[in-house]
Amino acid sequence: IYKISDDKTNIILDCLGDKGASFEEFCSKLPDNDCRYGILDVPITTKSGAETNKLIFVCWSDDNASVKPKMLYASSKDALKKALTGIAEEYQATDRGDLD
Fold it and tell me: Could you give the C-alpha distances from 21 to 40, 81, 87, in angstroms and in order?
């Protein structure tokens, strides 16, 4: 999970999940009343039956967060996505129900 630094100049690592951690663990690390970016490495089975992984990008912007961080995270999202390779899907979540 990534966050924007306190001085608002960099995107930095906020926390790192364990390999094989559950989606519920990932969601529990997303703060209420704030914003974060998250990357999930999700194992999938293809139509042909092969096992592989997909990288999922999650942009967390809690509805209860103030407008300033929401705008900052929205405007910085593309810079982080360009720095990361292999992103297969992107999701935007604004409340806990979006993560179900």
Answer: 10, 22, 19
Q: Assess contact for 38 and 2: CB atoms under 8 A.
A: yes
From CA 46, how far away is CA 62, in angstroms rounded? 33
Strand ranges across the sheet with 51-61: 11-13, 2-4, 35-45, 51-61, 87-93
**Strand 51-61 and strand 35-45: pairing?**
antiparallel
Contact 64, 96 (CB under 8 A): no
Q: How confident is the model over 5-22, as pLDDT tens digits?
A: 999 999 999 999 988 889
Q: Which DSSP string corresponds to 78-90?
A: HHHHHHS--EEEE
User: Whole-model pTM above 0.70?
Assistant: yes
